[in-house]
Batch of 2 targets.
Target 1
Amino acid sequence: MRIRFCDRQRVLQMNLRRWPPGAADEASAREKICLLILRHLQARKRWQKQFWEIFTAVPESEKAAFDAFHSAITLLFKKLMLFESTVKTLSLLEPNSGGKFESIVQGVLLAKAPYNHQRVVKMFFGLSFKVFCHSENTHDESLEELICQGCSQESERCMCKEILKKFSEANNHLVRLGLMERLAGEQLRELLQMRIKSYVQELCKGSFSSHLAELESWLETVVMAWLNCVYEEQDDVAHSLVLELSIVKLRHFLYETYTKIRVEEFFNIIIGKLLRHRD
């Protein structure tokens, strides 16, 4: 009779807990058991296939891509949480086992990433950012919209609350699995830079007043508030470091974008005057 994986895992955990302290070959045996379990995880790649299969038939709509990403992350989290108790036991015996587990998960998962996964990830965070901004800017509930500017659905069928809930759930899973940076870090940075550039252009185009104070306020109250939601499940130290590094880079990008737009506008004015003078 074939032993199920969950039963096999339970036996391994019992053996780990009952390992006699002080045995001559204790360290070597523990290391072998750790390696055995980690290799077993690496060999069982069905969770990898099931995860990426969800990405293969994603429609072009942003909401469909959002739902697909949330479903994939939820499935992956449930599959890998089967190893949670074993990894916790291993961490008592082999301090580095948790890091090895995350490394194997990252390596096995990303080795077969489909070509379109970055687009899906970007659409997931893009929709959540748009909904977050809309929810932050909606102060007067008496103003009725036929189409919600956050989720692009009819106002009577607004899905903003559902989207923000799923956004929080997916972020929680990504952080707990140690996949946030490897799976979504690059797309997050590209998305925020694109949003910052778009906002600066929209605010400053055709206006020669200083908008730095307004831009800095928007960066802190909207962009960083949203980024704080992305990493909210991390421990305090990691959370603070990520946000601190992010705010420095994003503020630098904001100033750089603002300066470029101002220089381009002044350059266009000068060129325009020279051309008119020549005529």
Target 2
Amino acid sequence: MSDIDILSSYDSVSSTSSSNVTQQYSASSIENLLKQKDDFKQFIVIKNDQKNVSSLAWSTFGFPAKRAEDGSYQRIIGFASCCNCKDTYSFQSGGSGSTKHLLRHICSKKSLLSSENNQEGLIDKFIKSKKSTSLKLTAQDRTTIRDEFTKWICSSIRPFNIISDPELKTTLKTIIDICQKYHRLIDIEDILVAPTTISYNVNRLADHYRSLARPILIEPAEAGVLTICPDLWTDSLKKLII
């Protein structure tokens, strides 16, 4: 027999042997072997150590492997197993295999949900830390602002409780938030508006809010169940409802 015939015969036997090793396993048999509890750990799940792994399935899945005589583990080709529950699926690697069925596995879903919750938790912590690190005014600056409010109220003969008006607080907060975007001094004239501008803006805002209220009121009006209550307020001095 020539050397070529010997090599050809050897390759044929080697190929047949490798095929038999692969064929002797099935997804269910591998799953049972992985779930067996023994001190020798003949079968385990090894991580996918390939570079540039993009699928999130590999955070939960790996490859089943059998322990060799030298103590190392050899991967069982053609399968992927869950690292947690050992459920095993057929999987063809080398770029031809899809991980969609692995992502549908219950452990993968739990892992993805946990990852999303952790990310949300980090974002919440970041936002809270930003809020908690807001700057506090010094006592001197607070006194200066208080004096300016006092002079404004007294010189314009405004009621003292105007300072507790919630809309004043909202307006000041909006101004501060806008000014922070520019990271530089803002001309005060760009912030304040003229009385005539306010007068004209009343009509514009009224039209805007009417357009928002219209679709809300149409349905109950057509159904004949719309009730309109006039604005009521109380006079705390005269104890009357006006």
